[in-house]
Amino acid sequence: MTQTIGRNSLHTIPNKRLSVQVSLTGLSFLLTNSSKSEVIHFSSMVYQKERTPEELLLDIDTFIKEHVKDASEFESVRVIYSNSEFTAVPTPLFDEAKASDYLKFNAKILANDFIAWDDVPARNMHIVYVPYVNINNFLFDIFGSFQFYHSASVMLEMIPMESRFTEETSVYINVERSNFQIVVQSSSQLKLCNSYHFITPEDFIYYILFCFEQLDINPDSAKVVMMGQIKEEDALYEIAYTYIRNIEFLPESILQHQLEGTLVHEHPLLKFI
User: How many alpha carbons lie under 13 Å from residue 212 in its C-beta half-sphere?
Assistant: First the structure.
């Protein structure tokens, strides 16, 4: 999927911002003009099977060579990592020195993995995760300082806080080719923020219903909002609607909003090793 202005004039536009969403099953690139608040390029790649971070870097390198003539023309660069190597930690319990320990409970990490975290103050939560160091190093060499964070953090910032005066339960599901992230909140309280790997539609609905059962959620009444790689004609939607009656979709434009990022912090000027 690609939307772009005239390729020859792309390099002459000032005040450009680059946002990249990275997952093992796809890449998305967004170029915007901050002074006019307009999209000047959007493209995405969806892979049939998971790629390695090294393979992802080759496609990112190709995009950069094609669309970035002068790195100094970009006023900001943002990267959103969307992978299953993350966990949510309440801020009062968060300790930087124990960042890797939090991940060991629900993700396979290596001794040399770089561990990062996002502060999500609106939720009083930290998202601890593993970014891809080779991609960070590559972008640092080109652009210098840049922002990066996990898609779970962006989801938590993007999802509206439910009123504390209602008992309504809302479920948000971000679908990728082989995994999905799920956020559950009720009465403005975050009940769940997790990721599940799936292969078949049956796997997909199994994990969703498992979450419903554990949290005592009624699939006939809960509001479920889908986003990402899912459409109404998909097998994933069909099997979900068999068991869940109240399903909505976020508009496609929300992906561009997600790529823009809603977190305001910036990681320090570092090169990651």
Answer: 21
- 254's CB contacts (< 8 A; 6+ apart) are 158, 227
Beta-sheet pairing, 189-197 with 223-228? unpaired
Q: How far is Cα 121 from Cα 116, in angstroms, rounded to an integer?
A: 16
pTM to 2 decimal places? 0.83
Question: pLDDT tens digits for 207-218?
Answer: 999 999 999 999
Q: Mean pLDDT in the chain? A: 84
| Cα(14)–Cα(144) distance, integer angstroms | 18
Phi and psi dihedrals of 72, rounded to 5? -70, -10
What does the pLDDT look like over 196-207, one tens digit per residue?
Answer: 999 999 999 999
Cα distance between residue 32 and residue 126, in whole Å:
28
Report which residue type is found at 17: R
CA distances to 48, 186, 188, 227 from 209, in Å: 26, 17, 22, 18
Residue pair 18/77 in contact (Cβ under 8 Å)? The answer is: yes
